[in-house]
Amino acid sequence: MLVGMVVLGSVRRPLLTLTTLAPEELRDLVTVAHHYGADPGRWKDRLVGARVALIFTAPSTRTRSSFWSTAVQLGCHTLHFGASDLQVTTGETWADTGMVLAHHLDAAVVRTNGPQIELEALASELPATINAVTHDEHPTQAIADACALLEVARNGGLIGAPERMQTQNW
Question: Aspartate/ornithine carbamoyltransferase carbamoyl-P binding domain: from which residue to which, for each copy (predicted)?
């Protein structure tokens, strides 16, 4: 979901990390995301006409398609950038890229698989920037995980025999 476009308090700001959110802001963000997941149709066209860039300089299937699908459901226009579409490959800084994009976009969902500082530079110019993964963090995945746990809790807990549960080593 385009959770970074949710106004936190009275200021629109980037969602780069969960560590800068107050506990009540994180709770509110997870609540909104959970409500969206439970009934996406209820949110149809809430952001009609918003211009959202999907900037993916690293491979992605689920994250990219999830954000695209959500943006379309919300009524947004999407613009897609891959690694070869950006001038950062020729030496332009992420801040310069953000400055250019800020004139044309309302928000950007960005997956770099690079250092967090790149995303921070972009977000300094384009405030509604959502971290779709950097080396340091994947906050939207953490929000999705929290929504899944909330759903499990609301449905009476885990189902299945605990002795059959497995831990994945990534």
Answer: 13-150
Per-residue pLDDT tens over the stretch 36-68: 999 999 999 999 999 999 999 999 999 999 999
Dihedral angle over CA of 133, 73, 121, 18, nearest 10? -50
Residues in the chain: 170
CATH 3.40.50.1370 fits 14-21+44-137, yes or no: yes
d(CA 28, CA 15): 13
Q: Is 15 helix (H, G, I), strand (E, B) or coil?
A: strand
For residue 126, what are the contacts with CB-CB under 8 A and spacing of at least 6? Answer: 98, 99, 101, 102, 105, 107, 108
Strand partners of residue 81: 55
* Per-domain residue ranges of the chain: 14-21+44-137
| CA–CA gap between residue 122 and residue 29 (Å, rounded) | 22
